[in-house]
Amino acid sequence: MSYKILENGRVQSKGFAMLSKDAKFTPFDFTRHALGQKDILIKILYAGICHSDIHTARSEWGEATYPCVPGHEIAGEVVAVGEKVSQFKVGDYAGVGCMVNSCGECEACKQSQEQFCQRGQTIFTYNSKDIFHGGENTYGGYSNNIVVSENFAIKVPQNAPLEKVAPLLCAGITTYSPLKFSKVKEGFKVGVAGFGGLGVMAVKYALKMGASVSVFARNEKKKEEALKMGVTGFYTSTNMADIAERFDLILSTIPTFYDVSAYLDLLKFGGEFAIVGLPPHDTMPSLSVKDLVYKAGKKVYGSLIGGIKETQEMMDFSLKHAIYPETELIKPSQIDEAYEKLTNGTAKFRYVIDMRNLE
Ligand code: NDP
Ligand code: ZN
């Protein structure tokens, strides 16, 4: 058996944690809550590294709870199911993204917008107080297993390339959702600012939806990859004022300080600027009311992951059209190095941690 249930019903787990904001990752043994009637136990096979993991683990968004086990791009195999589980069976593949529970009863939850649970009961996959399980801190996917309500698990077919599926659970849905919200279609001009883990997914989805797509990056390092994907414009933040192209939608995935207002100039009248990138609190960019008024006729909105129903829709869409992230598989011992590369500008796209051998 690939898992161990303790006498009190809790599940034995093993993962990698940061013990303080400046620490390195260290092996960490812990337990997860017992398998409830509607819960499934997933043996984690792959876990993507999202920049949100870095923001959180380094307390860039406010003080995290330590030990901190990040990871909300989880793909694995169901190894046990609660007695009332109806949508999964042992042996199925499943994915878990940024949330593991919510009240299920408010208007937002009923509309499958669980990330906006009106009772404030969205339980995030890590660094979140799980009020449904005695208020314990949640631990994420840099680990060998996870227990989750079946209502928060995404179905993944047996023939799916699991390593590539993992990043869809956050990078996929977080970019798919605003592109759908902005009703991207044939003939749209879409700009994607920040060409990393999320940016690549935004580019691929927007192209599939029929848009012509341009990328905004801070240098030309990944220009060739972008052109190969079918991108028609590639701009760097040094030549923003010279850009003549005007966009229906610009989606920002930028995780650092930047000039938000400069992007408004690049929108058509009625164009939209959608923000998903969330820089550290102490270097958070802002947008002045003056700029909004003088650069009028543009719409600015933020977007937070996506609901479970839409996440399943994104998964099905991605698999149907073979839209996958660009991934590099790493060992758990390389997580610190990956974090370094993702912050010093030497990373390519998505690192995925191989958890298959973590018994
Ligand atoms: P990555 O580190 O994979 O990618 C970020 C990319 O942005 C890199 O390619 C980086 O370039 C580029 N970049 C950095 N600064 C600039 C700049 N000033 N101008 C243009 N490009 C820039 O991060 P992720 O894609 O994983 O995440 C991106 C952001 O989205 C993070 O802040 C994350 O927390 C947030 N996020 C938000 C979610 C939501 O629901 N709203 C969900 C998931 C993530 P370089 O290659 O040079 O480093
Ligand atoms: Zn994420």
From TrEMBL:
Q: Which InterPro entries match?
A: ADH-like_C, ADH-like_N, ADH_Zn_CS, CAD-like, ER, GroES-like_sf, NAD(P)-bd_dom_sf
In the UniProt record, does the keyword tRNA-binding occur?
Answer: no
Keyword Ribosomal protein listed? The answer is no
Which Pfam family is one of those matched by this entry? ADH_zinc_N
Record keywords: Metal-binding, Oxidoreductase, Zinc
GO-annotated molecular function: oxidoreductase activity, acting on the CH-OH group of donors, NAD or NADP as acceptor; zinc ion binding
Gene3D superfamilies assigned: Medium-chain alcohol dehydrogenases, catalytic domain, NAD(P)-binding Rossmann-like Domain
Highest taxon of the source? Bacteria
Q: Where is each Enoyl reductase (ER) domain found? A: 18-353
**Cofactors named for this entry:** Zn(2+)
The entry sums up its family as follows:
Belongs to the zinc-containing alcohol dehydrogenase family.
Q: What is this protein called?
A: Alcohol dehydrogenase
Q: Which organism is it from?
A: Campylobacter vulpis
